[in-house]
Design goal:
- With 98 residues, the protein is an alpha+beta fold.
- The chain has a single domain (5-95), classed as Ribosomal protein S6/Translation elongation factor EF1B (Alpha-Beta Plaits, 2-Layer Sandwich).
- The protein has two helices and four strands, in the order E-H-E-E-H-E.
- Strands 2-3-1-4 form a four-stranded antiparallel β-sheet, with helices on one face.
- The longest helix is centred in the N-terminal third of the chain and has 17 residues, at 19-35.
């Protein structure tokens, strides 16, 4: 069994999404991490912020940050679920160094 790695996810959710929708997106990611025996260490909502450049004609987005531990092989499932979500404008998952 391979060791879990530390990851950080920043996601930008559509500004049309209400607070409950944004919260449910974050909960969905947390659930996916725990379903794959991962551990969510931290979750923050940064709220609505202006985007550096328009994405899908939006100039604002709801930002969220999450830090978690997960097996590297399970990152694929996480990326797939974020890519299939119409409300997620952009996301970035990075591996954190020790």
């Amino acid at each position: 069994m391979s060791a879990m790695c530390d990851y950080e996810l920043v996601a930008i959710v559509s500004p049309d999404a209400n607070d409950e929708t944004v919260a449910s997106k974050i909960d969905g990611v947390s659930q996916l991490v725990t379903e794959h025996q991962g551990v969510v260490e931290e979750s923050q909502r940064w709220g609505k912020r202006r985007l550096a450049y328009p994405i899908k004609k939006y100039i604002e987005g709801n930002y969220a940050l999450m830090r978690f531990k997960l097996e590297p092989a399970d990152i694929i499932a996480l990326r797939r679920s974020l890519e299939e979500d119409q409300d997620v404008l952009r996301y970035m998952v990075v591996k954190r160094g020790k």
